């Protein structure tokens, strides 16, 4: 059923609240914040809410969303009327390792030859043990002799 106000018929999804998980992207200088929902739509959080809930960039919340004011709706479709913290454990260790693995591959491709884990670690400014562990965990592209070598044209 559509709701009628001011002679405008609005679909039901624009007349009520909805609860969605949001991730805060950034805080503004004025104290408000902007987040994004699972559909990639922007959500506005007012300064009072940000201060009360001690909102920080990167935090995840369950948010009760209202359609934003008409003059703002095209750019930021939603505004949060209430947020509740959500504990989402994130293990981002693989992100760091992926970046280091890619750096190892790049160095070995650019400077053809054999590299010891110690040389790679020095070049990348990471610990020897971390470098050697990364190479050992990726034996599909590295093989161990007295050093690690990149299998060129690895798949």
Question: What features would you highlight for this structure?
Answer:
single chain; 155 residues; alpha+beta; OB fold (Dihydrolipoamide Acetyltransferase, E2P); Arc Repressor Mutant, subunit A; 2 domains; five-stranded mixed beta barrel; two-stranded antiparallel sheet; 4 helices; 9 strands; 30% strand; elongated; disordered N terminus
How would you describe the overall organization of this protein?
The strands form three sheets. The protein has a five-stranded mixed β-barrel. A two-stranded antiparallel ribbon has the order 1-2. The longest helix has 18 residues, at 93-110. The chain is built from four helices and nine strands, in the order βββββαββαααββ. It folds into two domains: 3-85, Nucleic acid-binding proteins (OB fold (Dihydrolipoamide Acetyltransferase, E2P)), CATH 2.40.50.140; 93-150, Winged helix-like DNA-binding domain superfamily/Winged helix DNA-binding domain (Arc Repressor Mutant, subunit A, Orthogonal Bundle), CATH 1.10.10.10. It is elongated and about 65 Å long. A hairpin with a 4-residue loop joins strand 4 and strand 5 (42-45). The model is unreliable at 1-5 (pLDDT under 50). It has 155 residues and is an alpha+beta fold.
Output the radius of gyration: 25 Å
Q: Provide the number of structural domains.
A: 2
**What is the topology, as strand order, of the major beta sheet?**
3-4-5-7-6
**Quaternary status:** single chain
CATH class label of the largest domain: Mainly Beta
Helix content: 25-40%
Strand content: 25-35%
**Helical/strand content category:** alpha+beta
Can you tell me the overall shape?
A: elongated
* Name of the CATH architecture of the largest domain: Beta Barrel
Instruction: Tell me the span between the first and last alpha carbons.
Output: 55 Å
Going by CATH, the homologous superfamily of the largest domain would be Nucleic acid-binding proteins
């Amino acid at each position: 059923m559509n709701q009628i106000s001011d002679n405008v018929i609005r679909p039901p999804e624009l007349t009520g609240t909805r609860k969605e998980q949001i991730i805060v992207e950034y805080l503004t200088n004025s104290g408000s914040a902007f987040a994004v929902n699972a559909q990639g739509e922007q959500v506005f959080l007012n300064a009072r809410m940000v201060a009360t809930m001690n909102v920080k960039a990167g935090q995840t919340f369950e948010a009760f969303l209202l359609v934003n004011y008409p003059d703002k709706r095209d750019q930021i479709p939603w505004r949060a009327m209430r947020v509740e913290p959500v504990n989402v454990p994130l293990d981002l260790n693989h992100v760091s390792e992926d970046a280091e693995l890619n750096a190892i591959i790049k160095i070995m491709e650019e400077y053809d030859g054999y590299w010891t884990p110690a040389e790679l670690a020095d070049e990348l400014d990471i610990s020897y043990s971390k470098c050697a562990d990364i190479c050992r965990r990726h034996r599909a592209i590295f093989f161990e002799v007295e050093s690690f070598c990149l299998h060129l044209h690895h798949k």
